[in-house]
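Data deposition worksheet. Section B asks for the primary sequence of the deposited chain exactly as it was used as input, without tags or linkers unless they were present during the calculation. Section C holds the resulting structure in token form. Section D is free text for depositor observations; keep each observation to a single sentence. Incomplete worksheets are returned to the depositor.
Section A, Depositor: J.P.
Section B:
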Amino acid sequence: MLRMLSAALAVAAFAAPLAGQQSTTSASNTFDWSGEIPAGSWIRVRDLNGGISVEPGTGNTVQVHGEKQWRRGDPSHVRFEVYKGSDGVTVCALWNADDTCDASGMHSHGDHHTRDGDDVSVHFTVHLPAGVKVDVGTVNGSLDVQGARAEVVATTVNGRIDAATAQGPVRAETVNGSINVRMDSLPGSGDLDYSTVNGSVTAMLPASLSAELDMETVNGSISSDFPLTVSGKLSPRHIRATIGSGGRELRLHTVNGSIELRKLD
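Section C:
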């Protein structure tokens, strides 16, 4: 999971369409950023404690709102940073004084959990225009992406993932939580991965799907609406098969939970 949250990306200055068109405000316990991001570029949001919600936006302006929540902790040690890279914008909530934020995400150099009684969390809400790709990641929190119209990447450790987009692909991974994804269309040939340990996996994909399928669970059932050409030994908990003419890899894995592959009309 740390590898996914820290994948290396280019860090050159962002292109001109963003320059001069962003605004950032930060009150003591809230944060707001807005800016124009060209279609095909990324908005990335990185959190540590707290969930992230993505909703459809209007025009070509991305809006990100962050709000601190706590009962006993000290919210003053959590700050927000914005990084503009070659392919988009990254927004981070940072818990330690020497934590950093760049195009590859949040880099933590300490453990905020060592503070006694610290229960501070940050919930982000993103308003996403058509064509802008979104990459959201947290450690303790759920991810809810609705109304996207481009590629989606969602990763957490403790929390569920719900992600829907008019145009995929979607990639999602958690450890403790279920995964529910929907893609109304699926251009290109990129692989699709959905993985959890404790939770179910449900993928709703276009009827035109062609893929090399690998579905596996240890404690749960497997079902598919798609006709499958099975390769190798048929197992009730592990299926390798071809859908349509094959091509991209489609992997759905869990340990404790069921797997459902659904065909959209």
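Section D:
The first strand starts at residue 22 and ends at 26.
The chain has two domains: 1-141, 148-265.
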